[in-house]
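Sanity check. The docking grid for fe (ii) ion depends on where the pocket ends up, so I'm generating a full predicted complex first rather than guessing from homology. Inputs follow.
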Amino acid sequence: MNIVANWSYPTAIKMGRGRIKELAEACKTLGIKKPLLITDRGLASMQITQAALDVLEAAGLGRAIFADVDPNPNEINLEAGVKAFKDGGHDGVVAFGGGSGLDLGKCVAFMAGQTRPVWDFEDIGDWWTRANVDGIAPIVAVPTTAGTGSEVGRASVITNSKTHVKKIIFHPKFLPGVVICDPELTMGMPKVITAGTGMDAFAHCLEAYSSPFYHPMSQGIALEGMRLVKDFLPRAYKDGADIEARTNMMSAAAMGAVAFQKGLGAIHALSHPIGAVYNTHHGMTNAVVMPPVLRFNRSVIEKRIELAAAYLGISGGFDGFYDYVLSLRAELHVPDNLSAMGIKPDRIEELSAMAIEDPSAGGNPVKMTLENTIQLFKDCF
Ligand SMILES: [Fe+2]
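Predicted complex below; grid placement will be based on this.
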């Protein structure tokens, strides 16, 4: 089964096997004549990246690449990227990779037109209106994993290299003008990354679905996103070359990111500080804390999860859904708890204080306080 589709929601998305061949055309659509491909160091020398550069070069767009990007991109990477963009006389960005390449690429395109420091554009109130819109360069996004959904997001996460705190930098123009979702680019992902990124997509859908805000569009997208993960993540994990499964996981990832405009919750509020302190994989950490967070929120989300379970073909209501999450985790070899992840329970108070300050905390169905978050962290060990 070969899935090919062109969507214009939430932006222009070209979905399907082999569509990386349309990269140069995508650049031209946005008026880009001299793109800078931005990705992380690990991906720079890989065949999929070189093949993408070949496509650009063959169309006369050059093969410029910037790959000085850390796994958690920071303002130092950002400054270097903006300098490479300006020094090279570029007029657009190809943001290429998993979360780090996509997030830094988007932010370089944005910052290329700004004079204020990046922290002035943190996702607080209307700070985004401080931006000089004219200077923002066009972006083509090419995801190589299926989880973050950053390819359809209007923000980037940039880590402050001094404080190690992750900041969300937001502007509507971060949304790439064209996205190429070519599932062949995800086929080389190691099993553990397929599992972790896939569970990140699932967490986005689950938390968006569970958050209390009124947003029926996101609600529907989140529900179908969960179904795609349920049907296709185990297949992609078992057989990395299962192109139908890989395609549907790319859809699920994009849907998760569209859905979480409705809000995230305690899974992400816990996962962010754990990742910042212990450098754990984001999606895998989400999967580890997911069952305790479901128990934590049960009193408020039970009815809603019953509806989701019915749609997903899971019997037994909330308990059935909870057991399904446990079995999915087992199938993907997710560690049982934070201890099994190699983390010691000696910094719970500090992590809890960070969690309740995390922007995701506000979307959790049960209000997170220092007291109940400390208890929740204890349950994660
Ligand atoms: Fe996430």
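Relevant for the grid: Residues 200, 203-204, 268, 282 surround fe (ii) ion (CB under 6 Å).
Also worth noting: The chain has two domains: 5-185, 189-379.
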